[in-house]
């Protein structure tokens, strides 16, 4: 979900002075992100990701032992090379080790360690750990994908996005880490936010000075991006989720800068912040260092720049295609005075706007990636598509943005801002023989949507889109709260939020479920007969507890369940949350 351009420009201007002051030096204060560097070699924990039928990536950060007063904090460039041994076993006690090896890491990779462990068995639970200089890491738990020839297995995973550190404690990650029934966690982007702690800070004011970004200013260089990744790896709730489950991840915009496109971003000022492409390059470098991400083969699939989009097979049940929609997208439509370069809410229905929106030369994903997507997932019953921003059309009534009731707007940073390619993809989904479920993040709220053939009351459903809530980032409730006087009871804000989401759903009849209050995650369960989405949310705010995000012990609970039945291309309420899995990995 994107801040309005006017707000971003105000915040950016106010933050420039602080950024300039801090730009000439950088302090490592051993708080938050830097503290684990002093806790031992493996203070940043372990993680795994990108599970295939016979392979999985394992990850850690190996901080060299302290030499004198220097500690090799993330991004500092300090620390000698260190040799790290790794083991993968079938049991947590490591009596049955199946793979082992060693790797040398150094400051060149920020002392991160990433190993693609191959030769494993499909749909099998494994445990892994690392050793270096007399120390042993925590034990990680992972598993390979249920891609086991013609054998049909269960598939269940968590769906998350948008985890702003200053936005609150990561209750969703803790809840996911406590589950034992997941194959993996799919993270659709905004793993962290590039903002600082000043005028550009986002989140509850109660957490100022308690849960702050590190570095304190906006991330602009390699040091800063590495340190921001380290901040998140140091969070105990996210560390638990990483330790317990493999992640499949893809970045959206905030891992670089808000509302990014192929050559810029709304939150990037070349005059004061230098080259955007240089900034993006170091952001991608830090992402590949600090995430358990397997960079796909670059030569076999046509693409532009670096190929990050990739696919995963789950045997005869289905495939997952993970899109990447920032690196090569055309700049968002620019129609002053309603928006500035980089996207925002724009009124539709005028020749000038519609001509830009319908221009077939404009694209969100490069044409080569679209060709790859159309050729993917065609032979399986279910094709799941991991997607950063909302695909289904969203018509926004003017009054919701304090504009005339005759005006209808769209968010030009979503697929609505790229209508020709949006229509191309929707038509492809409509013409396919299998069931397509699009899995989306970004908008900080929970949705169950029938992808319409066209944006009208007489639409035909062609597929389904499930949208997960944010982990912590501000959503509709927080936007409604910002509109009312300070001290307004939380119950009044809740009612106002439901009025907003009800108005949106009424204007867009293909939206069958929309909750804009709870933060949390969605659980996706796939069987041959249906795909079900269980939404798990933090508590609804009350006057006694106005913002659950500030309570470290708060948890999530089941809020709603929606499903799509095979062949229906529609969504319908499910009878309740999912039960036990039909089978378990070996």
TrEMBL record:
Residue ranges, compositional bias (Polar residues): 552-566
Limits of the Phospholipase D N-terminal domain: 45-144
Location of the region described as Disordered in the Swiss-Prot/TrEMBL record: 536-586
Domain of life, source organism: Bacteria
Coiled coil: none
InterPro entries: Metallo-depent_PP-like, PhoD-like_MPP, PhoD-like_sf, PhoD_N, Phospholipid_Metab_Enz, TAT_signal
Matches recorded under PROSITE patterns: TAT (PS51318)
Domain PhoD-like phosphatase metallophosphatase: 157-535
Protein name (Swiss-Prot/TrEMBL): Alkaline phosphatase
Organism whose genome encodes this protein: Kibdelosporangium aridum
